[in-house]
UniProtKB/TrEMBL annotation:
Highest taxon above the source species: Bacteria
Domain EAL, first and last residues per copy: 1-248
Protein name as catalogued: EAL domain-containing protein
Source species taxonomy: Bacteria, Pseudomonadati, Pseudomonadota, Betaproteobacteria, Burkholderiales
Whole-protein coverage range: 486 to 733 of 733
Organism per entry: Leptothrix discophora
Length: 248
């Protein structure tokens, strides 16, 4: 209750922050970032999304927060656009079910891109399959429109839901992110390795890019790279942090 009222003031009072976690290629070179929101609460300190995203969704504040996140990410992309060393970097942003249900979401995102001057091809939206369960047709139609703008679409936490495979077919995806639960024991558990191998094979055959999430050790990195995975994210390469720290 009190938190909800405080959250209402978070965007207008400039209390949200974006942390950026690097995404790397097979050589370990940074190819982009995932943007993760934080709330600098006036009394409670820096809060992770687990402490306020569900509340934002329940109160309708998620639309405003989601647009703020998108604006920040797009202005970063626009700033990088003319710097050769940074221009190839991508930024991925997480999108909630409630945001996708907003009737104007496609127009809102298109407007943020236009205003910022960010190259659409450098922006990826991260989706989860659970977000589509309410009205799949409406969601698919909007995702097609976003994809038509040139925006990348990643299926996050892949392999953990019920209908992962049918979504691979129905959604206009560019990327799947192997859930970190399959990576955690990949160097010790043959079943996890088999699942990760199957995901990489399937996604690659479908022309999708695969990102392995939650890579924490060199052994996990080598094992998942040996399966043919092309992009990696996890504490081995960097934790989410403010961009000033990331750049240094
Ligand atoms: O950064 P952290 O590991 O605490 O993130 C936890 C979860 O919060 C992740 O699953 C991520 O999808 C979600 N999350 C992070 N940033 C955003 C955001 O800007 N919007 C939405 N909707 N979810 C986010
Ligand atoms: O659901 P989503 O994939 O968006 O969640 C991203 C979350 O995963 C962030 O909160 C981030 O802090 C966390 N994360 C990123 N890399 C690692 C990792 O290597 N290990 C663990 N345990 N969590 C990670
Ligand atoms: Mn994500
Ligand atoms: Na994930």
């Amino acid at each position: 209750i009190a938190l909800g009222q405080a959250l209402r003031r978070a965007v207008p009072e400039g209390q949200l922050r974006l942390h950026y976690q690097p995404l790397v290629d097979r050589a370990g070179a940074c190819i982009g970032y995932e943007a993760l929101v934080r709330w600098q609460h006036p009394e409670r300190g820096l809060l992770a999304p687990g402490a306020f995203i569900a509340l934002a969704e329940a109160t309708g504040l998620i639309d405003e927060i989601g647009l703020w996140v998108l604006e920040q990410a797009c202005s970063q992309l626009a700033a990088w656009r003319d710097v050769p060393a940074f221009a190839p970097l991508s930024v991925a942003v997480n999108v909630s079910a409630a945001q996708l249900r907003h009737p104007e979401v496609v127009e809102q995102i298109a407007a943020v891109l236009r205003r910022s001057g960010a190259p659409a091809a450098r922006l990826t939206l991260e989706l989860t399959e659970s977000m589509l369960q309410q009205d799949v047709e409406d969601g698919v139609r909007k995702l097609r429109a976003l994809r038509a703008l040139g925006i990348g679409l990643a299926l996050d936490d892949f392999g953990t839901g019920y209908s992962s495979l049918s979504y691979l077919k129905r959604l206009p995806l560019t990327t799947v992110k192997i859930d970190r639960s399959f990576i955690r024991h990949i160097d010790a558990d043959g079943q996890d390795e088999a699942i990760a191998r199957a995901i990489v094979g399937l996604a690659t055959t479908l022309g999708l890019r695969v990102v392995a999430e939650g890579v924490e050790t060199q052994a996990q990195f080598e094992r998942v790279a040996a399966l043919g995975c092309e992009a990696f994210q996890g504490y081995l390469f960097g934790r989410p942090q403010p961009l000033a720290d990331v750049a240094a």
